[in-house]
Amino acid sequence: MKTEALIDLLARGPVAAEPRLPERRVATAALLTLPVVVIAMLVILGLRADLVAAAGLPMFWLKLAFPLSLAAVAYQAVTRLARPADTAAGAWAGVALVVGTIWVLALGSLLAAAPAERATLILGETAWSCVLGVAGLSLPLFAATLWTLRSLAPTRPRLAGAAAGLFSGALAATVYALHCDEMTMGFLAVWYVLGMLVPTAVGALVGPRVLRWT
Amino acid sequence: MKPIEDALHALLLAALAGDNAAYSAFLTQASGRLRAYFRRRMSAWPDDVEDLVQETLIALHNQRHTYRPTQPLTAWMHAIARYKMIDSLRARSARESVVAPFDVDDVDETLSAIEPLAGQARRDVGRLLDGLPDRFRLPIQHVKLEGMSIAETAVHTGMSESAVKIGIHRGLKVLAERVRKPS
Hints:
The complex is a heterodimer of chains A (214) and B (183).
Chain A: H1 3-12, H2 21-45, H3 51-54, H4 58-81, H5 89-112, H6 118-123, H7 127-150, H8 157-176, H9 185-210
Helix pairs in contact in A: 2-7, 2-8, 4-5, 4-8, 5-9, 7-8, 7-9, 8-9
Chain B: H1 2-16, H2 20-41, H3 49-62, H4 73-99, H5 104-113, H6 115-119, H7 122-130, H8 134-145, H9 150-157, H10 161-180
Helix pairs in contact in B: 1-2, 2-3, 2-4, 3-4, 5-10, 7-8, 8-9, 8-10, 9-10
């Protein structure tokens, strides 16, 4: 086929396109998958028993706000990296800022505590089930986000995969926080971060293979 | 470059808002720039240039919703062009490694590496060849000594053409090894 004929063919149909389609697709996929994750948390893990009492404590809300704000910046990164040649420097700076803030707060709380208590403040009682829970709950979101990215055009698949992993991990951590009854900064700064890191690393690993588009 | 970028940018934005004529003009100008882009980078395969231009135009079309109106248009176009080019090079190398895992030039190189041997009596080669298994010996004997083509040798020996080529390639390597350190 001659190139002129191809151009003619492409330009003849409806050509309008919505510039914010990447944002809408990523958000829609996440919102459609989120109920699955919530149900999985309710059925497999269960809500924390003292939910109503805990809701009166600032730490309860911080535990939701921390992963939720990471999800927001990761969403920025995903939708930027879904576009050819676009960069997500601002979003990565946001990730560093959010995680950095939590680490500073955690360090402060540790320094204020008696030395003998510090280990307990970090380790809590459910460290590994937190990592496993966050990573496990992120799976449906991770798959949905990668699937959506394949309909867009990431040209930095490793970064895009990592962003998709962080986005799904952060949303999963927000849901997990409704089950988890650990209430220390140290726990949040280590185990929640590790849990979100799992899908992030997997995303960076599989991105170049999975994120093919035409 | 800037005025061209601005003109293209205006055309694409109009197209994304539904202007077919602007879209046609955008694709036409974009195809010219893509052709130049691929000609510079694919000088080893000039026949692939127009295919790549068309594949990239289709990708630009399929992915036109991924253009963020404030991002540099050329960078966006080139990132898609580069993606298509790497795809095509990858497909090419996969294709070629299925048909023949080495270059025919390779065989000749190996042959010239043992040129001193070729300069000696053919009988010595024959003696060396006798020590090789048939799958190496026959291809070398027929193609390199008797001057048969790869296809003829394949028919004659019942081997596939690629097996003949591989036989020559590996056999010559073994021979070269033997000449270098005679046991």
